[in-house]
From TrEMBL, chain A:
Gene3D superfamilies named in the record: Helix-loop-helix DNA-binding domain (4.10.280.10)
Organism superkingdom: Eukaryota
Protein name: BHLH domain-containing protein
Keywords noted in UniProt: Growth regulation, Transcription, Transcription regulation
Matching InterPro entries: bHLH_dom (IPR011598), HLH_DNA-bd_sf (IPR036638), PRE (IPR044293)
Organism: Digitaria exilis
Keyword Transcription regulation included in the entry's annotation: yes
PROSITE patterns per the UniProt record, alphabetical: BHLH (PS50888)
UniProtKB/TrEMBL annotation, chain B:
Keyword terms, alphabetized: Nucleus, Transcription, Transcription regulation
Compartment(s): Nucleus
Domain of life from the UniProt record: Eukaryota
Protein name as it appears in the record: BHLH domain-containing protein
Keyword ATP-binding: no
Stretches assigned to the BHLH domain: 152-202
GO MF terms, alphabetically ordered: DNA-binding transcription factor activity; protein dimerization activity
Pfam entry (one): HLH
Family that this chain belongs to: Belongs to the bHLH protein family.
Keyword Plastid carried by entry: no
GO CC terms of this entry: nucleus
PANTHER family: BASIC HELIX-LOOP-HELIX PROTEIN 79, STEROL REGULATORY ELEMENT-BINDING PROTEIN
Length: 86, 353
C-alpha cells in the first residue's frame, strides 16, 4: 500500500509539472501571471485553445493557397517563391 | 436517525436475500424498464405516493417500491413505509445520508448490488426534478448514490475530490479526441505530454503559416507580421517571461520554438526579394524604409516596425541570423510599398495603428 502511494505521488508530481508546462503554453495562463488555476479550468482552456489553433491553421492555409493562386497572374517570381516556400 | 435507518435497511436486506433468481431477474428488468420510461416512473411514483400524502421527494422512493411490489410480492410491500422513512431521514439531514445508503449494498451482498445501482439512478433523477432549487450539497449527494457504493469515503472532502477527478478525467477524454495519436498513450502523464507537444506543434504551424503568408504577400498581411512580432514582444516583455529568458534550458524552449519558423523562413525571404530583382540594403534596416518609401508613409512604417522588432532582438540576443532575416524581409516590404499607391498604404497602416 505504501509503495503504491509513493508511486502515485511521484506520478502526481510529474503530472503537476506537466500541467504547469501546459499552463505556460496557453495564452490566457500567461496573462494570469503564474497563479495556479484549477486543473479542470486549465484543461477546458486547453480544449478551446486547441480548437482555436485548428481554426487558425485552417484559415491561414486557406489564405496562403489563395495568395498562391492569385500570385500566378501578377508576379513573375511566383514559381521561385512557391518552390522555396514548399 | 442514521441508526434507525440502518436497522430498517438490515431487515430489508434480509428480505431481498430471500428472493429466488427469477424474481430477482424480474425485478431487475422492471428497474430497467422504469429507467427507460421516466414518464411511467413519475406516474407510478405519483400514484403510489398519493396515499402516503408525502411531499414530491418521495416520488422517487415511491416508484422504487412500486417496482418492487410489481415483481416481488407480499414481502416487498413492506418496503414502502421503509422507503418513506428513508426519504424523511434524507430530508432531515443530508450529511448522514451517504452512510445510510452505503449500508445497503454491503448488506445485500453480490446479488443485490446491480439491482440496487439501477434503483438509485431513477430515484436520483426524480429527486433532482422534484427539488428544483437544490443546493450544491444536494447535487453532491446525488453523486454519492452512484459513486460511494463500494465502501469509499463519504466525507465531503473526499466527495468533492471525487467529483473534481471525475471532471478532470472527462476533460481528458475530450482532449483525447482532439489530439491525434493521444488515444494510444496510456496514463495521464503520457497524455499530457502528448497534448503539450501537440499544442506546441500547432503553435509552430500557425507561426510558420503566418510567416509564409507575410513573405508571399507583405502588404496584405502586414498585420500578421506585426501581430507576430507583437506577440513575441508581449511575451518577451511580460514580467513572467523575463526571468525565464535569463534561464537557459527548458524554460527558454517555447520562445525558441516560436522563433524557429522565422529562421526557417528567412532564406526564402532573401530569395524572394532577390526574385523581385531588388537591391538589398544590408547596413541598416530603418534607413531603406525612410529612403525608398514616400515621405508621408515613412514615419508610420518605422513607427510600426521599430518598436515591435527592436526589443525582440535585444532580448533574445539571437542576433545575427535574425537581423539578416528581418532586414531581407523588410527590404522586400519596401519594394512592395513602392509599387502600391501611398494612400492605400497609409490606410493600411492607419488600420494597424
Amino acid at each position: 500500500m505504501s509503495s503504491r502511494r509513493s508511486r502515485a505521488s511521484v506520478s502526481e508530481e510529474e503530472i503537476n509539472e506537466l500541467i504547469s508546462r501546459l499552463q505556460t503554453l496557453l495564452p490566457n495562463a500567461r496573462r494570469r501571471g503564474g497563479s495556479q488555476a484549477s486543473t479542470t479550468k486549465l484543461l477546458k482552456e486547453t480544449c478551446s485553445y486547441i480548437k482555436s489553433l485548428h481554426r487558425e491553421v485552417d484559415d491561414l492555409s486557406d489564405r496562403l493557397s489563395d495568395l498562391m493562386s492569385t500570385m500566378d497572374h501578377n508576379s513573375p517570381g511566383a514559381e521561385i517563391i512557391r518552390s522555396l516556400l514548399r | 436517525m442514521a441508526r434507525c435507518q440502518q436497522g430498517t435497511m438490515e431487515s430489508l436486506c434480509q428480505g431481498l436475500l430471500d428472493l429466488d433468481d427469477d424474481k430477482f431477474g424480474a425485478m431487475c428488468s422492471a428497474f430497467g424498464y422504469l429507467q427507460e420510461w421516466p414518464d411511467l416512473t413519475a406516474m407510478c411514483g405519483a400514484s403510489l405516493a398519493a396515499p402516503g400524502g408525502v411531499a414530491p421527494p418521495v416520488t422517487g422512493d415511491g416508484n422504487e417500491s412500486s417496482s418492487c411490489s410489481g415483481s416481488g410480492g407480499g414481502g416487498f410491500r413492506k418496503r414502502r413505509p421503509d422507503a418513506y422513512l428513508d426519504a424523511k431521514g434524507d430530508g432531515n439531514d443530508t450529511s448522514k445520508r451517504p452512510k445510510g445508503k452505503q449500508q445497503q449494498p454491503c448488506g445485500l451482498g453480490e446479488i443485490a448490488a446491480p439491482g440496487k445501482g439501477k434503483q438509485e439512478k431513477p430515484k436520483g433523477g426524480t429527486k433532482k426534478k422534484a427539488e428544483a432549487a437544490s443546493t450544491a450539497a444536494g447535487e453532491k449527494t446525488d453523486y454519492i448514490h452512484v459513486r460511494a457504493r463500494r465502501g469509499q469515503a463519504t466525507d465531503s472532502h473526499s466527495l468533492a475530490e471525487r467529483v473534481r477527478r471525475e471532471r478532470i478525467s472527462e476533460r481528458m477524454r475530450y482532449l483525447q479526441e482532439l489530439v491525434p495519436g493521444c488515444s494510444k498513450v496510456t496514463g495521464k502523464a503520457g497524455m499530457l505530454d502528448e497534448i503539450i507537444n501537440y499544442v506546441q506543434s500547432l503553435q509552430k504551424q500557425v507561426e510558420f503559416l503566418s510567416m509564409k503568408i507575410a513573405v508571399s504577400n507583405p502588404v496584405v498581411s502586414f498585420d500578421i507580421v506585426e501581430d507576430l512580432f507583437g506577440r513575441q514582444l508581449k511575451q518577451a516583455c511580460s514580467p513572467g517571461a523575463l526571468p525565464a529568458m535569463a534561464l537557459p534550458g527548458g524554460q527558454l524552449e517555447p520562445s525558441c520554438l516560436q522563433m524557429s519558423p522565422m529562421q526557417q523562413v528567412h532564406p526564402s525571404a532573401a530569395a524572394c526579394s532577390n526574385g523581385f530583382g531588388l537591391d538589398m540594403v544590408v547596413s541598416n534596416m530603418y534607413q531603406p524604409a525612410g529612403a525608398s518609401c514616400p515621405v508621408s508613409a515613412a514615419t508610420p512604417v518605422t513607427a510600426a516596425a521599430g518598436p515591435s522588432i527592436e526589443p525582440c532582438l535585444n532580448v533574445n540576443g539571437a542576433a545575427a541570423a535574425w537581423d539578416i532575416g528581418s532586414q531581407n524581409l523588410f527590404s522586400g516590404f519596401d519594394a512592395q510599398f513602392q509599387s502600391v499607391e501611398s494612400d492605400c498604404l497609409l490606410d493600411n497602416l492607419k488600420m494597424e495603428m
